[in-house]
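thought: fold this chain, then report.
action: predict
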Amino acid sequence: MTLAERLLRWAVAGLAGSVGELARALVAELAVLPDGAERRRWVLGGYRMLGREAGRALGSAAVSPGVLLVCGIVVGLDRLGRSDDAAQVVLAALLAGSALLGAARPEKAWARGFVVGAAVCVSHLGMVLLGDLTATTSALAQAGALMVLVVPALLAARLGAAGRRSVMAARGP
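observation:
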């Protein structure tokens, strides 16, 4: 089994519903395919399916009222903050909002965390492209570097989801 096949197997394990069943069947059928071009095309098809589902999940998360509210708060704090500790306040809001969103819908935690984490970057890119900031190479690079905020947002969302699951498990049926 190649690394690409292992990654595909790992990625489809988290899919839910009928898409998850279809993806797990796709991976299960890899066992009967001989090595070669057909097997590689089969794996590539699995990655295309994962890409489509990720796009749908991100699009759905981006228009969720809770995500829009958290993104608005985070971007608003980023734009209003002028003090030395403004970045820490923005990060605290991003972490708290992502954790709450993850706890609210654990099955969609990764998508919601990604959208919230990318909000500040998208805001800065929009300001550069719309002329609010001087469109220099450094301004674009700085805006793109803000994508690093996706990592703590994803972690916070996953921690919120894990927290909810552990509370629900402690309550029992």
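thought: worth noting. The chain has a mean pLDDT of 87.
final: tokens above.
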